[in-house]
Amino acid sequence: MLRSLVKSIGAGRAVALSERAIRLLQQRDFAGAERLLRRAIEVNPAYAPAYHSLGMALCDQRRLDEGAALFRRALELDPDDLLARINLANVLVVGNRPEEAVAHYAEVLRRDPEDAKARAGRVKLLLDLCDWDAAEREVGFLVDRWRRDPGDPALARLTPFASLLVPFPPEMRFDIARRYSARIVDKVAREPRPRRPARGERAKLRIGYASGTFHNHPGAHLAAGLFELHDRSRFEVFAYSFGIDDGSEYRRRLTAAFDRFVDVRTEPYRVTAQRIADDQIDILVDLRGHTDGSRPEVFALRPAAVQVCYLGYPGTTGATFIDYLVADSVVAPRTDWDWFSEKVVWMPASYQVNDASQRVADAALSRAEFGLPESGFVFCAFNKHYKIEREVFALWMRLLAAVPGSVLWLLGGAGETRLRQAAARAGVDPQRVVFAGKLPKPAHLARHRLADLFVDSYYVNAHTTASDALWAGLPVLTCPGPTFAGRVGASLLRAVGLPELIVDDLQAYEARALDLARHPERLAELRAKLAANRLRAPLFDTERFTRDLERAYGRMWEIHRGGGAPQPVAID
After folding, report:
1. Helices 2-26 + 30-43 axis angle, to 10
2. 0.90 exceeded by the pTM?
3. Same fold yes or no, 1-79 and 205-356+544-570
4. Plot region of 240 (φ>0 → left; ψ -120 to 50 → alpha; else → beta)
């Protein structure tokens, strides 16, 4: 009886410690939560929720392998903890173990077919794996459920980002974004709003950029020059970093690029929002939108008078707390404005900033060292695998069949096995699909010069990937898709003066690619034109872009100071 009493007391202490730890997790005190949870496990080694919560605390500290081991232990003790299984799957995705992650999502859905979190996590992962059959079934299931009932609980946790990657109806995509953002508003509803000090008469506008990617990341590769080139006689520029300090050259450069750089990764969102208000930020720019590394709760608390989404998210946030979306007339034509909650700002060329100081390695490279043929035509597509559609890959295989000795050069990733299998089914030797490993950015840019033509994906184009190719001197062929994400290639090509590489449909895309592969002199002309335009066209004119964006900020502020509601802005 005494043993039973001691056990009961221990169990109660473990619960109490875990509850205190969860409150610390919500405050982003990961180290404090870890200490309490380890004590809870000492008190009651069989208490599964403590292992689960400790796994979350360690994952938030980027200790992913340790976190995964704790999720596994929680499942050993309680196989019915579906959230632990979902969190394990999420960690496995980050740890590049996609097949195992898919199995865990499938197990959750076997136990609970209505689990929205598992469905949300599974959609993008199936695309990463190029499991097109399963992805198409999942998309069909979700669209059917939405058409029956947009409020269906099975759709509740679908992320806006995942909705950009698949052919959902535009109404559905907009609905997902609005519902997601409304949940963020509900989450912060009881929080006190930040107190904004009186601004007074200040000549300089204060611009705050908020992101989780102020390190070695594609977003930083694009925008570093923008932050450096802001006119300090008219603007003060602040950074609020939600992400890791990776110790990279980019992190050091970005830290120096701002008038003030604040690492807020471990701050509760309400503290960060008050900090931004105390800094008297006039225009707060969200560089991530609904993607990893974002903190939408900060924006939902409205710490700045004007709030903007830019660069990192190619679509609407659906948020009442974001006033403007920076775009251009190609990616966000007026006919699409009904599907944006924000007022659209049109930049005069492409919406995408680029850094004209990016270094391309000057080392001599050979095709042989990358597994490429010395004389065969190299079609290149350095997109992540989730962007590769079944129809476009089949088109690429027809190109390989029609151009003897040619290869398709892709980045390595989770879909390699299925892509090789798809090549074999198309009657193409799988070895003609060559996968590239990761390289430092200057070397990665340099290897583009070994390719002949970059062939774009359709539904979600190459974004930073396409501008990398163009900066390195590699022509890009694109066919615009039906959404912002699918029109970026066209936006970039217009801004670099190569509209002839934008085609109307996939039939024309295939014919144009084949024509260029068979007529090297035509491709050489395009390369020469790109080389001539590269340093004089708007796309890579970072200073020109910065001045244009500053004009856009100035117009937003004029509208606000005049007491008007946000309205569309066109910079010419």
Report:
1. 170
2. yes
3. no
4. beta
